[in-house]
Specification:
With 371 residues, this protein is α+β, with helices and mostly antiparallel strands. Helix content is 23%, strand content 31%. It has two domains: 231 residues, 3-Layer(aba) Sandwich (Rossmann fold), CATH 3.40.50.300; 125 residues, OB fold (Dihydrolipoamide Acetyltransferase, E2P), CATH 2.40.50.100. It has a six-stranded mixed sheet, with helices on both faces. Keywords: ATP-binding, Nucleotide-binding, Transport. GO terms for molecular function: ATP binding.
Length: 371
């Protein structure tokens, strides 16, 4: 198990209180695949560098198993690391690149080459052993970098944006390969990425960071369907979650979110404590949780289609309030069977229990996160 306890990292020259990593606590189980996800400057790469031993924490403790490693040199941590640039030696063959960390450990040349060959077979690049990096495609170079990291049988594999240099199609193939290899070898793996799709697809759990702090650490489905706060909800999802300003009110025995364009009645099992009534909130609903419906539906909301984008697998419909009371445009994901065009008037409704309510007075906490 990897354990980070109250990790803080401050860089010299920064103003006091401006921390790259600020009180980070994290546990990663043996054999688990974890992603550190967040926007630029959130602290994810700094955290990875501290795990690798390339940076020392200002305070806090890092444990590999029960071993404190704060002052253990990178070469003694038994880690493998794949950098964003792959960092292959251009003058060396694939074989020598893979064998390089083994030769650094004074392992005999023939043994190092044999282990390089075995590792290259796992990544299906054993036919490339005599080539130089310049003769390889981006995907092949990425596999060589992975093979080099795995050749020394590391206990921990660290991946720093390893797919950022690949085109969209190749990313999918390489992503699948990385996951298969990790599962087969059972090596504890941590990947840093800003690509939410990549993180959600490949990981057992994802830690979402912002401002040097972990906002939420959970399996992908939990993050997407039960975000703990506004940052997590708005960061995840493409197209992003719809967010509409409103007020929590009680009317005729019902709890409602009242906005300038509509009122939404909360179902009985989603009712909130009365102390929340009167609060300013953001009503959140993901585009795929909105349906185009008949005007007779009790919770139907009238909208006007502003734009229709054809996505191949479906349509992204952008709708506005025809009375212009609702300032926010609403994004709706529909199937291709739904016939709508710009200028059409339609009615929409929200799937029950798929909405979120974020408290604007309490750091955007999701009032429904435990429902």
């Amino acid at each position: 198990m990897i354990t980070l306890k109250n990790i803080v990292k401050e860089y010299e020259g920064k103003q006091e209180g401006n921390k790259a990593v600020d009180g980070l606590d994290l546990e990663i189980n043996k054999g688990e695949f974890v992603a550190l996800l967040g926007p630029s400057g959130c602290g994810k790469t700094t955290t990875l560098m501290m795990l690798a031993g390339l940076l020392k924490p200002t305070s806090g403790e890092i444990y590999f198993g029960g071993r404190l490693v704060n002052h253990v040199e990178p070469k003694d941590r038994n880690i493998g690391m794949v950098f964003q640039s792959y960092a292959l030696y251009p003058h060396l063959s694939v074989r020598d690149n893979i064998a390089f960390p083994l030769r650094e450990r004074k392992i005999p040349k023939l043994e190092a080459y044999e282990r390089a060959k075995e590792t290259s077979k796992i990544l299906q690049i054993d036919h490339l052993l005599d080539r130089k990096p310049a003769q390889l495609s981006g995907g092949q170079q990425q596999r060589v970098a992975m093979a080099r990291a795995l050749s020394k049988n590391p206990e921990i594999l660290l991946l720093d944006e390893p797919m950022s240099n690949l085109d969209a199609r190749l990313k999918l193939d390489v992503r699948d390969e990385i996951r298969k290899i990790q599962r087969n070898l059972g090596v504890t793996t941590i990947i840093v990425t800003h690509d939410q799709e990549e993180a959600l697809a490949i990981s057992d759990r994802v830690a979402i960071l912002n401002g040097g702090k972990i906002q939420q650490y959970a399996p992908p489905n939990e993050l997407f369907n039960h975000p703990v706060n506004l940052f997590v909800a708005s960061f995840l999802g493409n197209p992003p979650m719809n967010l509409v300003k409103g007020t929590l009110e009680e009317k005729s025995g019902n709890q409602v979110v009242a906005t300038n364009g509509f009122e939404y009645v909360l179902p009985e099992d989603r009712r909130l404590d009365k102390t929340h009534m009167g609060k300013q909130v953001l009503f959140g609903i993901r585009p795929h949780d909105i349906m185009i419906c008949d005007s007779t539906d009790m919770q139907a909301i009238k909208m006007k289609i502003d734009l229709v984008e054809h996505l191949g697998s479906g349509k992204l419909v952008k709708a506005i309030d025809p009375q212009h009371k609702l300032e926010t445009m609403i994004r709706i994901l529909t199937g291709n069977e739904i016939e709508v065009n710009s200028g059409d008037n339609v009615y929409i409704k929200f799937k029950e229990r798929k909405f979120h309510i974020f408290d604007m007075t309490d750091n955007g906490v999701n009032l429904l996160q435990y429902r």
